[in-house]
Amino acid sequence: MTVEITSTAELTALLGTPTPRAVAKERTRLHDRDRQWLAATPFCLVATAAADGTCDVSPKGDPPGFVHVIDEQTIAIPERPGNKRADGHHNILSNPHVGLIFLIPGRIDTLRINGRARLLREAPWFDDLVVKGHRPVLAVVVEIEQIYYHCAKAFLRSQLWQPENWPADPLPSRARLIKEVEAPAESLADLERHYGPQYADNLYT
């Protein structure tokens, strides 16, 4: 038997209500500790939704400090070369609401920011976002509406940062996955060359 939850009242009855501290931790402006966190993070997840509600989550990564702080309520994330699908960017053009999670390797808590985003193709601070000679062609600017730290329980349960508990890699290589799932007509040898050691040499080209 399956039982679906269909109302907020049912959900609250099942999960309970948040503690006063959990409710009060939301802020709207960057604290100095938030700036330190953003200066240390090399990775974030950007969640977006189109006007029709379809969703996307995109990983963003760069050397620590890649997140540019414009002011106490505004940050920017540079765009780097990718597959050109730009799913999240298309979503932002129709629905500016975004959710961000910033991770620091080894930390079991995270920094979360929710806000409204827009796309810029040029700004004076773009010169501060150059990495390995690559100047971004656009940046996602986020006006902060909510910011808070998230607890460590998910990381503790998953043992994400504990290599001694990591399983042996259960899946085939990236090249084999692409061959089997996305591009069966392509040569495995060509895919292995593409995703070989030189792949990391072309991250900013």
Summary, kept brief:
The protein has 205 residues and is an alpha+beta fold. Helix content is 25%, strand content 26%.
Notes on the structure:
With about 200 residues, the protein is an alpha+beta fold. The chain folds into two domains: about 25-160, Pnp Oxidase, Chain A; about 165-200, no CATH class. It has helices spanning about 10-15, 20-25, 30-40, 85-95, 155-160, 175-180, 190-195, and strands at about 45-50, 55-60, 70, 75-80, 95-105, 110-120, 140-150. Strands 2-1-5-6-7-4-3 form a seven-stranded antiparallel sheet, with helices on one face. A hairpin with a 2-residue loop joins β3 and β4. The protein is globular and about 55 Å long.
| CATH fold-level label of the largest domain | Pnp Oxidase, Chain A
Main sheet strand line-up: 2-1-5-6-7-4-3
Whole-number mean pLDDT: 96
Secondary-structure element pattern, one letter each: HHHEEEEHEEEHHH
* Overall body shape: globular
Q: Do you know the CATH architecture of the largest domain?
A: Roll
Number of helices: 7
Q: How much strand content do the residues show?
A: 25-35%
CATH class of the largest domain: Mainly Beta
The Cα radius of gyration reads 20 Å
**Unreliable stretches, pLDDT < 50, 5 or more residues?**
none
Helix amount: 25-40%
The CATH superfamily of the largest domain is identified as: Electron Transport, Fmn-binding Protein, Chain A
Structural class: alpha+beta
For the sheet with most strands, the description reads: 7 strands, antiparallel
